[in-house]
């Protein structure tokens, strides 16, 4: 994973067509979602009989002419790069090559949507009004090689906000795990941007919440206090789990952590690097408030749902008939 990096550009896992430019500067990008074979002459439910090979050639020529007209409409947009979500067949690809236009076919829907977003263009399906079509722009499009794969990099996009994280690892399972971890980290970052409030990690907040719930339970009469005490014990289990996962003596660490919180030192949490109790604000161990809030709410709702279950009905396994022997 040490070869992973952040690329300052948008990477698209596609390649330009045959005999087309591999590098385009100050690109004018037309992004489309259109079939390039829809204008071919199609005959359904009938047969065509010809008395000479020249008639077949005329039919093929008519098909090519209709496809050529569509390509000419595209070229009237004065674009230097044409990106289509659908296939671009051999003859249109040749026409784009002759015009010096980079044509990229079969760009997936997600890639097309992101390209339109970062380049400032729009996705079109008809080409009758070039003057009203908004093209995308970027300073440089070039073909690059990463390992054994060739990709297209869009640098200096119009919106100025495109980048790509390239993950490289030894096995597919390592890459999948890294992608999941990175996705979780980005989701937490997005939530933190929306709500910049943070709380201390390392079990500090769980211990603080447990202390507050336990204190409230002592002031609450009736059976509700028993449920509150159980909830406090459940919160106190989380620092123990953190210590166990780190391979430390959870009983010793959690007892020391509880003593710090009893003295009002609520920023104290578990330092799993050194195996001791430390100030989480000084170590920079912080968590997003929204993530912590959602975690507590989801766990509470799950526990409440289980407690509402009065009984469990076990269904007998379905009897299987013995196999028939012939």
TrEMBL record:
A GO cellular component annotation in the UniProt record: chaperonin-containing T-complex
The keyword Chaperone belongs to this UniProt entry's keyword annotation: yes
Record has Calcium as a keyword: no
Keywords of the record: ATP-binding, Chaperone, Cytoplasm, Nucleotide-binding
Signal sequence segment: none
Superkingdom, taxonomy of origin: Eukaryota
GO terms assigned for molecular function: ATP binding; ATP hydrolysis activity; ATP-dependent protein folding chaperone; unfolded protein binding
Pfam families in alphabetical order: Cpn60_TCP1
Gene3D superfamilies assigned: GroEL (3.50.7.10), GroEL-like equatorial domain (1.10.560.10)
Record-linked InterPro entries: Chap_CCT_beta (IPR012716), Chaperone_TCP-1 (IPR017998), Cpn60/GroEL/TCP-1 (IPR002423), GroEL-like_apical_dom_sf (IPR027409), GROEL-like_equatorial_sf (IPR027413)
Record's subcellular location: Cytoplasm
NCBIfam families listed in its UniProt record: chap_CCT_beta
Family recorded in the similarity comment: Belongs to the TCP-1 chaperonin family.
Name by which UniProt lists this protein: CCT-beta
Species in which this protein is naturally found: Fasciolopsis buskii
